[in-house]
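Cast an eye over this sequence plus tokens and walk me through the fold:

***
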Amino acid sequence: MKQSIKIFAVASLLSVSMASAAFAGTWKEDSRGWRWQEKNEPSPASEWEWIDSNEDGMAECYYFDENGYVLMNTTTPDGFSVNEKGAWVADGIVRQKAVNPAAAAAAKKNGRELYLDAIKKSSALPGLDIDGDIHMNLSYSELEIPISMELHLKYHDLNTPNMEFLSETQMYMMGIKDTQTSFYTNGTYYSDMGPNQKYKMKIGHEDMTKNLTLGGLTGQFWAFLDNVQTADGEGGSKILLYSNHAEGMESYLEEINSEIWPALNDVDYKIDSINGKAVITPEGYFSREEIAIHLTMVDDDETAGMTMNMILDYHNPGQAVTIQFPSTEGYEAVVY
């Protein structure tokens, strides 16, 4: 009966993340462009390099051509965008990386504080209107199994006599579509899992709340944040980019699997990487979360890989939520 969405996704860009870092040097300009020169070192050429030009502990990433000149306001040979200063830009954000432990610790601390505050504010809202998209791909030998899920959730007045929610899920796998709808109104829970599977039961709002995870939708990854970058977004919003250290994440992932594909919990798996992005409104609420998770699974000495890309959009957080319910006709009454 639990209806949970735990979500977030920004893909890891391997060639950029593996670039070397430059800590001391200077920019030099000539008639052909700009070069980066470190003492007693040749200028970088045909490669990416992280450079902390202003020595604030946060470096930007630049691509240098075969002659050692930084590319500006273009697309690099390996397909990434750089701005008018030559810095790598993804999703409209100049990407940065901490180049010393103090800068990394400060970025992590500030990011966690921003994220945790958004958790508290978003979780305290009386209602939310959420759309979620989950795309998974299981790869084994030459077999590829794509799975996608669309989630729509509205709720208000949790754990009060006026509590209501509506949850709609559509899942697509190997050409098969599965649709489920559940909702709670006037003290009654309704579940529609298809023909001849429509049930309703009377249940108090206290017991209904115990069977839900609606109040814990946001910010599930804050304790695992690592490699954090904070940037300014549109209209005064804040954007938080991060990767997670995977240790300790398995139990959380089991909750996700229980809602999406319970059979995954029957195999041993290792989380290889997690990358995330959160957009936070000027008022401090989540407006969008993205997560990309890469796994390696082992079952009976067979190994498979899996990616999970999850996106969660919060519509007009902080505003009143109204729900239009489906018809309540045709449900078989059962006892809770």
Notes: The chain has two domains: 24-98, 112-314. Residues 112-314 form a domain with the outer membrane lipoprotein receptor (LolB), chain A fold (CATH 2.50.20).
